[in-house]
Amino acid sequence: MDGVNAILPFHLLPTIKTLSISDFADRKGRSDTSKSDLIMSLLTSLASGSSPSLWRITMRPQLLKSMASILPQISTLTKLRIALDSPPTTDELAFLNTVLSLKDLSLSLKGYRHSQEVYPQPGGHLKKPHQVQGEPQIATLSLDGDPFFVFSAASFFASPSLHTFTAKVPASTLPNRLRLGLFLVPHTLHLIAHYNPRLRQFSINVDQPSEIEEASATWDRMESDDRVAIPDGFLPTIATLKDLKSLSLEHIPFLQTDFVKSLLSRLSNSPCLQTLCLVPQLRPLVPSDLPNLDDLRTLSLKVPSLQHLTISLNLDSHPPNLPDLVIPGHGLRSLFITTQFTVGFLRNDVTRLVPLVKYLDRIFPQLVDVTSYHKPKDNGYGGLGLLAGSFAIWKDIDYLLKSYQSLRKDMAAQLGRH
After folding, report:
1. Measured between alpha carbons, how far is 68 from 93 in angstroms, rounded to an integer?
2. What backbone phi and psi angles, to 5 degrees, belong to 247?
3. CA-CA-CA-CA torsion sign (309, 312, 314, 315)
4. φ, ψ of residue 295 in degrees (nearest 5)
5. Contact 347/389 with Cβ under 8 angstroms?
6. For a Cys-Cys bond, which of 92, 290, 302, 386 suits 268, CB 3.0-4.6 Å?
7. pTM above 0.90, yes or no
8. How do residues 132-186 score in pLDDT, each as one tens digit?
């Protein structure tokens, strides 16, 4: 017990609410066993009930196996953050089933040297990979790593309890063999939704559009690979998600050119949807059948709960006939539109810019932000990868939208005085 006291005085143990554990590796990657033993002594003390307020632990991988017998004893533990140097096996994850209080799990994979490209068999992505798959009572799962790791973890933790799923994929730092796992994103969404039709949030965001090596040949090869074909029953399953509040698929490659359009049509049945991001990574040199302004209007009519929309649209054609203006109208606050080709043609063509602005103002009269997504960013999310000049165009559009809104406000004020 003296070792525990050397780390943390006994009188402070009852006050601990969160705990962060380092791996104590030296510069050569070797673990310092003496420090690890001290931490294990501390955790043993915590598990005995010395810290009744402890609810979150963040740790490095070297302690994972040795903690398998201790974590289940911490009855107050609801959140766990684990940083991994290599993908865990399902057997290594299975012990988390015994942590009955665990509701929020975050797994972050920081090394890709040992990552493998493991595809499900065609049509087999819904099968249980482990006998205790789906047993954890985890409600929130956050992942950070390559897409094969994301799919594997999703396969193990998918259950009727899992209502929030988020993943970040740093594709810009991945080798090409692992980037190809992005074609499994529809399978990941399908299996999470399959096990819990009451899914509330699903998000897989890639840091920036990744350049797949030998792009055209790779897409052709993947298109003929049955393992990554869009799953049967995918769209009908999406249509059952009545509790879905947020869906984000950003910079994801889809083999079907009309995938976004088809998905959007099924989301029209989601009455609770508040946030939607559908920005695919488009296939090189192949035109995509993206949603158009008519689809945008349909969304405004069928999903009145929507507050934030980021979407890739086909803006090549003139807007259709202007719908009637309804006040206060749809309550969408932010709208970010990306296109397959540059919107630069709008800058010097008022005959196309003004009709577009009028159309957007009619279907979404309460817009607050149409520009921030297009601002260039240093971290790769959002701005980078968007076509040059889009930010300037959307600043012009924002100015005109605000002018229409201001004019309506002034007219309403004048009518109110009479």
Report:
1. 10
2. -135, 130
3. positive
4. -65, -35
5. yes
6. 302
7. no
8. 776 768 999 999 999 999 999 999 999 999 999 999 999 888 888 898 999 999 9
Q: List the 164-169 sheet strands across, edge first.
A: 18-21, 56-59, 79-84, 104-109, 140-144, 164-169, 201-206, 246-253, 275-281, 308-313, 334-339
Residue 358 burial (C-beta neighbours within 10 Å; 0-12, 13-18, 19+): middle
User: Mind giving me the DSSP string for 28-91?
Assistant: TS-B-HHHHHHHHHHHHHIIIII-TT--EEEE-GGGTGGGTTTGGG-TT--EEEEEESSPPPHH
Among 338, 394, 339, 340, smallest CA distance to 367 is for 394
Assigned token pair, 147: 């897409």
Distance CA 67, CA 36 (A): 11
Tens digit of pLDDT for each residue in 297-329? 999 999 999 999 999 998 877 778 888 888 888
Q: In the numeric block, which tokens belong to residue 247?
A: 């869906």
Residue whose C-alpha is closest to residue 189's, from 206, 166, 210, 207: 166
Q: How many DSSP H helices and E strands does the chain contain?
A: 12, 11
